[in-house]
């Protein structure tokens, strides 16, 4: 990639960020908002630097929870979608449960999960799994069901075995849909982890934000928020690029 | 080829599509070991008939059977309008799809040999997206041949190709499918006259199947031969008459 293309690619997000920062600074400066309500960008920047060790440690915890949640949720959701495709009883019994995992707000479940799984990372991993389970399972299951009929006709004319049709035809054909679910999951998994930390934890970005909030350290709270947002964007970007590389046959027209 | 090719006997066959009866009481014998070409305008029920013969759909009534008394199931290869290649699989793996879906050990050497006959010896590890439409259709033909079934059903396999590519595919199909019982659907009179050893026109309401005089000579017949050109003209006239004003 040439320097020019890098500059072109980075130009827009950097420009957007600068614009937002300027707007923020303007509101604080001209609106006379007290810093404990909305700290100026400079103060947040200073907090970001001064508390870098604390923030990095907290981000590490949250990233670990998010990563484990993504891994387990993806594996669990993927296997469940395959089982639902392979067996009608599993489909009938599990579909309502999958829906339920989306219908119950994690905020309501969070205190319960902390009670059950403790203040450590386990309850946050479970939370992240719960948050991503629906998008992963439903997108993959949809993909598995929507195999182009021509391929299935061909398979039938070849006297194919149903298990192998699922594995070698339906599964690869469903991967693009699965990837869409995984992209959504990568964007919302940190949310589950942070909600868990907010309710009861001894480390992590959510925990840091909560304690900073109660102490009116609004600048640190904003710094943690900034770290969380950056982490989520980077996570999404990494997953997106990895998927694009793995699904080499799927047209990916992103010239800009 | 391993097994001898049977003739196909259609007895009192009724076929419906989407709840609508396409035809009833169809009696037809498709002779053994030759190309039978089935023509007719769109919507007349050619594809539905082929799917019933292939065992993909059940007939509303009647039977499809092989004249040698053995079951037809497992002896039929089917090639659809589109190439139906798996975009994630390499060319040679696409050819061996049948064995991969049956859980048998794929025969790489035979797949490579078939692709060599298709003129694709240097594209074994290419992905379908890297191939032209004609090449993709040749891979689909190789995949059909890999199945090594005595009966081969083809549903307008060359209709999306340009004239030159189509003519070459017709030559290739005639050469490689020689001796098998082939049922080929087409809407192209020239294709019917080049390949047909039995030419059948489906038309009318209710649908009737009429045999058409077949030009002399072995298939694939040259496209510029007098008898082929004449037969093509006669066939087109019959199709126009059948379609009505």
UniProtKB/TrEMBL annotation, chain A:
One of its GO terms (cellular component) is plasma membrane. The chain crosses the membrane at residues 54-85, 97-119, 125-144, 188-208, 220-239. The keyword Cell membrane applies. Its main location: membrane. It is a multi-pass membrane protein. SUPFAM superfamilies: MetI-like. Keywords: Cell membrane, Membrane, Transmembrane, Transmembrane helix, Transport. It comes from the Bacteria. InterPro entries: MetI-like, MetI-like_sf. Signal peptide: none annotated. This is ABC transporter permease. It comes from Gluconacetobacter asukensis.
Automatic annotation (TrEMBL), chain B:
The keyword Transmembrane helix does not apply. Keywords: ATP-binding, Nucleotide-binding, Transport. One of its GO terms (molecular function) is ATP binding. Pfam families: ABC_tran. Gene3D superfamilies: P-loop containing nucleotide triphosphate hydrolases (3.40.50.300). InterPro entries: AAA+_ATPase, ABC_transporter-like_ATP-bd, ABC_transporter-like_CS, ABC_transporter_ATP-bind, P-loop_NTPase. Signal peptide: none annotated. PROSITE patterns: ABC_TRANSPORTER_1, ABC_TRANSPORTER_2. Residues 8-229 form the ABC transporter domain. Transmembrane segments: none annotated. Belongs to the ABC transporter superfamily. This is ABC transporter ATP-binding protein. It comes from Gluconacetobacter asukensis.
């Amino acid at each position: 990639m040439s320097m020019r293309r890098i500059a072109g690619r980075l130009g827009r997000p950097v420009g957007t960020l600068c614009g937002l920062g300027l707007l923020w600074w303007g509101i604080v400066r001209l609106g006379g908002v007290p810093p404990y309500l909305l700290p100026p960008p400079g103060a947040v920047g200073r907090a970001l630097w001064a508390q870098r060790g604390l923030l990095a440690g907290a981000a590490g915890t949250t990233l670990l929870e998010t990563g484990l949640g993504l891994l387990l949720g993806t594996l669990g959701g993927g296997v469940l979608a395959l089982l639902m495709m392979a067996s009608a009883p599993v489909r009938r019994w599990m579909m309502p449960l999958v829906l339920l995992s989306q219908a119950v707000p994690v905020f309501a479940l969070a205190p319960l999960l902390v009670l059950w799984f403790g203040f450590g990372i386990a309850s946050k991993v479970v939370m992240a799994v719960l948050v991503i389970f629906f998008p992963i399972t439903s997108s993959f299951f949809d993909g598995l069901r929507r195999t182009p009929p021509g391929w299935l006709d061909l398979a039938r004319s070849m006297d194919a075995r149903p298990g192998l049709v699922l594995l070698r035809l339906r599964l690869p054909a469903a991967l693009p849909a699965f990837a869409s679910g995984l992209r959504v999951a990568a964007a919302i998994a940190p949310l589950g982890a942070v909600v868990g930390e907010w309710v009861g934890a001894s480390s992590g970005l959510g925990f840091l934000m909560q304690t900073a909030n109660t102490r009116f350290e609004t600048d640190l709270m904003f710094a943690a928020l900034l770290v969380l947002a950056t982490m989520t964007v980077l996570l999404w970007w990494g997953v997106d690029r990895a998927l694009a590389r793995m699904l080499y046959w799927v047209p990916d027209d992103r010239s800009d | 080829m391993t097994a001898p090719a049977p003739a196909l006997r259609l007895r009192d066959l009724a076929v419906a599509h989407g709840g609508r009866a396409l035809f009833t009481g169809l009696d037809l014998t498709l002779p053994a070991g030759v190309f039978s070409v089935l023509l007719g305008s769109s919507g007349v029920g050619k594809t539905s008939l082929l799917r019933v013969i292939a065992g993909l759909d059940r007939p509303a009534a009647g039977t499809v059977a092989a004249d040698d008394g053995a079951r037809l199931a497992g002896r039929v290869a089917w090639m659809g309008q589109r190439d139906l290649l798996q975009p994630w699989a390499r060319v040679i793996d696409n050819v061996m799809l049948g064995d991969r879906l049956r859980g048998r050990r794929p025969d790489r050497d035979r797949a490579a040999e078939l692709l060599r006959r298709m003129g694709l010896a240097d594209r074994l590890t290419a992905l379908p997206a890297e191939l032209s439409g004609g090449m993709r259709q040749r891979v689909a033909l190789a995949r059909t041949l890999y199945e090594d079934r005595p009966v081969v059903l083809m549903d307008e396999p060359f209709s999306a190709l340009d004239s030159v590519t189509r003519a070459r595919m017709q030559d290739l199909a005639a050469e490689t499918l020689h001796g098998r019982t082939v049922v080929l659907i087409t809407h192209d009179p020239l294709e019917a006259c080049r390949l047909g050893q039995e030419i059948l026109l489906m038309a009318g309401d209710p649908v009737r199947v009429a045999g058409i005089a077949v030009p002399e000579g072995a298939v694939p017949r040259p496209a510029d031969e007098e008898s082929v050109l004449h037969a093509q003209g006669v066939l087109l006239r019959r199709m126009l008459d059948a379609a009505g004003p």
